[in-house]
Amino acid sequence: MTAPSSPPATRRKAIEHPGRFAVFAVGLTLVALLIAAAISGADTEDRRTLLPSQVQSVSPKPGTIVPPQEPIVVDLRDDLTADLQLCGPTGGCVPLPADQVNFVPGLGQLSFQPGDGKDVDGYDPGQNTVKVAYRSQADPDRDTGSFSWSFVSKS
């Protein structure tokens, strides 16, 4: 008597459903390409205005939209002072008088608040530019320089 023979061993396919695999592989490739395109096309450029080393910070921030009576603040290196000018959208510049600018000598901070009774009671609508001419408090001929930045006022 002969032993019952088992059916011949069938070899299992490496990929059971090749059509499904192809669709999945193409989809996964497209997702990877979209992610790569998004990363390489991302806008990572630093658009901030670079301040000179003598200027620690300014307010309003460059390019921001502010109300017409937002204070102007310039924080310089502690041993500096400055003269400020405000230039409106039409290009005309107004010097901000020293008696209307608050100055903290030990910190090198200047601030101006537009309002009634001041040379500037509010900013004109549009792009306004602040010009800063800085110099040493101890020796006005040392560490001189200038800097300007702009912001937008909406009335």
Would you spell out the secondary-structure blueprint of this structure?
Layout: H1 18-40, E1 55-59, E2 65-66, E3 72-76, E4 80-87, E5 93-96, E6 102-104, E7 109-112, E8 126-136, E9 145-153
Parallel strand pairs: 2-9
Antiparallel strand pairs: 1-3, 3-7, 4-5, 4-8, 6-7, 8-9
Describe what you observe in this structure:
The chain is 15% helix and 33% strand. The model has no long low-confidence stretch (mean pLDDT 86). The chain has a domain of 99 residues: Immunoglobulin-like (Sandwich), CATH 2.60.40.1220. The protein contains one helix and nine strands, in the order αβββββββββ. A hairpin with a 5-residue loop joins β4 and β5. The strands form two sheets. It has a five-stranded mixed β-sheet, with no helix packed on it. It has a four-stranded antiparallel β-sheet with strand order 1-3-7-6, with no helix packed on it. The chain is an alpha+beta fold.
Produce a short descriptive summary.
By secondary structure, this protein is of the alpha+beta class. The chain contains 1 helix and 9 strands.
CATH architecture of the domain at 55-153: Sandwich
Please tell me the overall pLDDT. Answer: 86
How are strands sequenced across the largest beta sheet?
2-9-8-4-5
Residue runs with pLDDT of under 50 for 5 or more positions: none
Series of secondary-structure elements, N-terminal to C-terminal: HEEEEEEEEE
